[in-house]
Amino acid sequence: MAEEERPREKLSKHGRQHISDAELLAIILGSGSRDESAVELARRMLADHENDLNQLAQRDIDFLSCYKGMGPAKSINVIAALELGKRRKHQEIKRDKISASKDAFHHFERELLDLPHEEFWVLGLNRNNKVIDKFLVGKGGVSGTVADVRLIFKPLVNKLCSALIVAHNHPSGNLKPSKSDIHLTSKIKDAGKIMDIQLLDHLIIGEASYLSFADEGLL
What we know:
Blueprint: H1 7-14, H2 21-29, H3 38-48, H4 53-56, H5 61-65, H6 72-93, H7 101-112, E1 119-125, E2 131-139, H8 149-158, E3 163-169, H9 179-195, E4 198-205, E5 210-212
Parallel strand pairs: 3-4
Antiparallel strand pairs: 1-2, 1-3, 4-5
């Protein structure tokens, strides 16, 4: 590879905006293998994930280490770089007040994106829809999780919350609510009426996208 085409030299000469995702990934990798350069390895890894960094971010150390020319150390570098990108995005878009389903999604995405299993999270809000608390209620497997309504409302009552928004992820990326999702949402809504804590929304989060029960008229 000509010196001016090497990723580090290109970034130094032309700036970060002028190099590809594969070239950025190659800089993180540092080197490839005897059979392919770091850029070629990076291109192959991205191609295996449909050139989607969100898909790549879901991989763990064991999976990435299976690529020839990788190993635990390089795999950790890749995972750390992608996690830093996600945290930077979260800081840029963090909001205290929830005005729409997109605001709630931004509050939940750091916890729920890129997980290989399901988790159930809750936002507690005051009367002005400002966030008072955010907490995890339950973890599950690939295709389901359990959320106890009593565990949802106990912290909300203790902190005098006036409303709540709940969210869980679908690792498959399928955003369609299951029967159990709909049933649990109904239970939470009914319990909230008794305690005067309104359920504002339930989000199902997939691969960098979401479904809002409120937006879809499912509440």
